Amino acid sequence: MSRNQPCMAANPDHVGIVKAMAGDVGILRNSIPLKAQANMRLLKGDQIKTGKNGKVGLIFEDDTVISIGPNSNIVIEDFMFQPNEKKLSFVARIIQGTMSYLSGQIAKLAPSLVRIETPHATVGMRGTHILVKVD
Amino acid sequence: MPNRLRVAMLFVLILVISGCAGGTMVVLTPNPDGKTGSITVSNQAGAVDIKTPYQAATIKSSTESPNPPTTLNRETVNTIFSDALSIEPKPPVHYILYFEKDLLLTTDSVKLLPEILTSIKERSSTDISVIGHTDTVGSREYNMALSINRANSVRDLLVTKGVDINHIKTTSHGKENPLIKTEDNVNEPRNRRVEVVVR
Question: Which CATH number does the domain B93-198 belong to among 3.10.310.30, 3.40.630.10, 3.30.430.20, 3.30.1330.60?
Answer without folding.
Answer: 3.30.1330.60
